Amino acid sequence: MHPPSTAEALFVPPSGLRRPEILAPAGSHESFAAALASGADAVYLGLAEGFNARGRSTAFRLEDLPSLVHRAHRAKVKLYLTLNTLIFESELELLERVLEGVIRSGVDALIIQDPATALLAGRLSNEVRLHASTQMTVSSAEGAQFAATLGIERVVLPRELSAHEIALFTRDSDLEAEVFVHGALCMAWSGQCLTSEAFSERSANRGQCSQACRMPYDAIVDGKKLDTGDVRYLLSPQDLAAHEALPQLIEAGIASLKIEGRYKGPAYVATAVDSWSHWREAVLRGVTDQDRVRLEADVLRTQLTFSRGGSIGFLKGDNHQELVVGDSPKHRGLALGTVKRVQGQRVEVTLNANLSASTRKLIRPGSGVKFELVGRGAAEREPENAPGGPIFGVRFIEGPHGNGGRGGGEALELTFGRPGPDLSRVRSLDEVRLTGDPEIGRDTERRLLKAPLGRIPLELRVSGSAGQRLVVEAQAEGVRRLGARVATRAALALCDTGDGLGAPLLEDKLGALGGTPFFLAHLSAEQVGPGLHIPVSELKQLRRELVSALESELEEAPVLSHEGGSVAELRAELTRSNSERGGVPALVPLCRTEEQLEAVIAAGLPLGSEVELDWMEMVGLTRAVARAKGAGLRVTLATVRVQKPGEEAYDRRIAGLKPDGVLARHWGAVMHFSEGTRRGDDQQRDDEQEANRTTQAQRATSAESPGGPRLALHGDFSLNVTNSITALHLLKFGLETVTASHDLNREQLLDLLLRVPRGRVAVTLHHHISTFHNSHCVYAHLLSDGADYRSCGRPCEEHRLALADYAGHQHPVVVDVSCRNTVFNAQAQSAAPLVPKLLELGVRRYRVEFVWESGEEVARTLAAYQKLLRGEISAATALLAARVHERYGLTTLRGGKR
After folding, report:
1. pTM, two decimal places
2. Is residue 392 exposed (0-12), middle (13-18) or buried (19+ Cβ within 10 Å)?
C-alpha cells in the first residue's frame, strides 16, 4: 500500500469543524504548476480573452482550459475561473460565447462580479457553480440574499470584515464564505474603487487598476499641509498575513482560505501555500510548539518572496494606526536593523533586539539586502531607487555577552561585491532589510520538476469465487467522487499450492499506482473466496483498465443545457416584467451639508421636487429631513455605501425617518427595502431567515400594506449597472430606477439606455467622482492615536482633510455615518453635452451631487442645469456657468484631461 504524505492525507477535523480549502492564485503557467506541486486544494486564474480583473494576467487562453482542468483534477485540485469584471452591453454576446467554452472545459466554478454573468451562466448550464467575487461587494447576509437570486453558492467576502463579522455572516447566510488571508490588501472596498477611472481613465472594475493607492500623497488639513515626515504613502496598506486569525476563521465555518497574487511568481505561490497548508493542519489537530517554530520559518519565507510588511488586516477589527505604515509601497522583506557605519564595500549593521534565530539563519551570502533611506527628501527616498544587492560576505560581531561570532551577536558586518549597491547614498540609522533568498527559488524549481501524482485516495472492494471472474469496484475521492467497476477476462481457479489471492497480493498488484493520479487508501478482500488463483498478468491488466476508467471520468465536463440565444431571450423575458416610466425630466440634487440644503431650498425648484440627503451622522440627518419636508421637498435618503454584518440597523433608522424614497447603495439595502419596508415602519425585522420564502420578485411587486405606501426605491451607481441584463434583473425588485455605473463612457451609456425601458435609468449629470471608499480612516490615522471610532476622538467632526496628489489636486475626504472614508475627486465632471440625447432616450432623473460646495456654488450649478434641461442654454454655456470640466465616465469628450 502507498500511503500519502502528511500534506496529502485525508483529515477529518475534530468537533465537526470544517476543513477549509487553500485557494492559490495563478497568473502564469509556472505559478499554476507551483500551486499544484505545493498541494493547494484549488487554484484560480483568468483568461487572456478578457472579463478578467487582473488585466495584465494573460498567460491562459480559453483553448488552454480543458488541459488545465485535466492537470488540476489529476492533482486533486479544483480550478476556478475568474470572469470578475463588469460587462458592457456590446459584450453580452461575446460573454455568452466565452461562457459556453468555459462550461465545456469543466472548470469547477466561476468567480463573477457582474450579475449578468451569473444569469447567463446559469441559463447555459444548471451544473455550473458560481462564486461572487469580492468585486461584487457582497458584504452582509442581506446582500447574500441578492446573490442567491443569481444562483451564487459562495461569496468571496470583502477584506474589510473582521473575524467576528465573518462569523455573523456565516451564521446568518446559507452561502459558503471565502476569505482572503494572504497577499496584497486593497485600500478601497473592491468593486467600489473608481480611482483608476478618475485619475488614469482606466477602470479597476475592468481589470485595469492603476494602483493609485500606492502613490504618495500630502495631507491637507483645514487648508494647510500636514508634516508627515517620511510617511508619504498614506493609502498604501501592508500586506495580509493572517495566520493568527485562522482558529477564528475555522470556528466560523469558512469554506476557503484565499491567497491573493495573480501577478506574483511561482516562489511566492509555493511559499504561501506551504505556510497555510502546514498551519491549517496544525490548527485542526491542535497546535504544538514545533508547529509554531515551523510557522515562523514558513512566514519568513513568504516575506522574502514578496511582502510590504505582514498585517492581520481588518480581521481583528479596525486599527487605523497599524494598517498603513506609509514608508514604502514596495517589497520590503524582513527588517534586520539599522546602519551603524559604512566603510567601502562593508556595512556594519546594528541588529534589531528582537531578531529571531530563524531570521539570523537567512542572513547568508547570496541573500538580497536593501537599504531604506531615512530622513531624506522625497526624490532621494524614492523606494524604487533604494540601494541594495546580494550579500557577498557575512560576519556576526560579538555582542557584550559574548557569542564567539557564532551568529548570536548584536551586530553584523555585510560585505558587497563590485558592482554592488551604491553605498555612498547610505548613512547611519538607515534601515536594513533582507529582501530575498535564492534557495527559495531553487526549492521551487525542484518542485516543478516533479509531477503532482498520487494525490487521489482510492478505495477498492474485490470479490470473486471459483469459476467466476474477479471483480474490482473502485471509489475515489478526487475533486468529485469517481467510481468504476472492472472484471478479469479469465475466471478464477482453485490453486494447487499456497494461500491464493489474499489481501497482501492484491494490494501489491492492484495498488502499484505509481505514475497515476491515485494512491491506494484501502482495499477490502473479504468477498474473495479462499484458495483462488489467477495469473498476475490479469491483475495488472485489471489495474490498467481501472485507472483508465477513472481517468476518463476525471475528464468529464458539465453539459450545456441551453445553447445559443440566451442573451436575447433573457433580455426579452426580463423586459416583459418591467414597464416604462414617464414624467417630466427633473434635477435631483444630492446634498451633504446644511448649507447645501438651504441653497437647494432657495433655488426655486418646481413644487414637489426631490432632494437626496447623504449625511455623516444621524442627528443632523433627522433635522435635515424635517427642514426639507417643511420646505415642500420630497426627501430621498442615501444608505451607506456598503453594509457590514451587524449594520442592518442603519436601514431601519432610515426607514424610521419616514422619507419619501431611499437611494440603495448596496445589495443588502435592495433586499431590505424591497421586502416590504413601508413609510413609517421602523419596526425591527426578525434576524432569523424565514423557512419558506416566496420569491424576491413576488415580494417586490406585492400590494401595499396597511402600514402605508412603499418607499420609492432607487439604485445608486455603486450597484455597478453596466448592461441591460443586470439593470432589468434589479428592476424586478421594485426599484424605480437604477443609476448608470460611472464605468460607462458615452457610447456604452447610450447602448444601455436603448435596451432598458424608458425612464428606468438615472444618470449622474454632475459630480465629483468618489474615488476611494475606505474602511481605513485617514483622519484617525493622521490626527489621532486612536485605533477606531471608540478611541479616535472623532477629528472628522472638527477638521476637513484632503489628499493632495503629485499634480497638486486636493481630493476631499468625507467620513460617513459608519466611519468609513470616501475620497472624492478634486475636479467635478459633467455630462452636460449628453443631455439632448439623454432626453431623447427617455432619461427622466438627473442627479447633481455636491461634496464640499458652498451654498453659492450649489445655487449657481443648479441654475445652470435647470436652464440646460429646459433647453434655454447650450451645454457649453452650462459648463461655463457651473465651472466644471466636460467628461462622462472613462471617455473625455473634449479637453479636460488631467
Report:
1. 0.91
2. middle
